[in-house]
Amino acid sequence: MNNKALIAVALASLVGSSAVMAAEPAKTEKCFGVSKAGQNDCATKSGSHSCAGQAKKDNDPAEWKKVPAGSCEKMGGKLEAPKAS
To answer: Is 61 within a domain?
Structure first.
């Protein structure tokens, strides 16, 4: 193989591997207390509703939204639902 062919193979492998890396899903975590009204991702742990988009108020501690991993507590949220009283 000549140098041009080796370079072409090397570049093709780099492009192919970066495309695979870009296709991997981003890591996320459930973050309680940061969703806005109507923008929660799923049911509350308490069972007050069972679907996404049903939060009644902003930043309800029982409502959750998926956020990039490592960002929840920086946003003022919690990684666990509040304990039932």
So the answer is: yes
